[in-house]
Amino acid sequence: MRVLYTNTIWAGVSAARWPHADCMSAPPDDRYCPYPFWLSVAASLAKSLGHEARMVNPYAEYLDEDRYYRAVRRFNPEVTVLESSTRTYNLDVRIAERIREETGSKVILAGTMPTAAPGKVLEEGCADYIVRGEYEFAVADIIKALETRGNVG
Prior knowledge:
- The chain has six helices and five strands, in the order βαβαβαβααβα.
- The protein has helices at about 35-50, 65-75, 90-105, 110-115, 120-125, 135-150, and strands at about 1-5, 50-55, 80-85, 105-110, 130.
């Protein structure tokens, strides 16, 4: 399966959602963008299981909104894993819905918001699946179920 691992575009917050790191607006020589460790671990696991996995990190790649969605459409994922934080949740919802609309991708929301408020996230309906806590193995299990059975249930 083609699986996209991504965080969302939000000026002023780094890929790892550290509030002190502003890697989009700082001068090029002063930029510090923490590496999205959990996304990369999950993507590496998916690759090791034979999936075509791609990370889109808008902060490290300096993608504006248009270039971000272009990268997503070009990869055309079957499944998108979106790391959502409480601070960026409203934007994450819009991005998840747009990715689903433009690509037909199933959306898995992981990260702090689905972990802290799973009921709210499920009520929003922006994700096909949510994962709480550390997510790399749970996401791999969901992808395997989708690939073999077409659903998780």
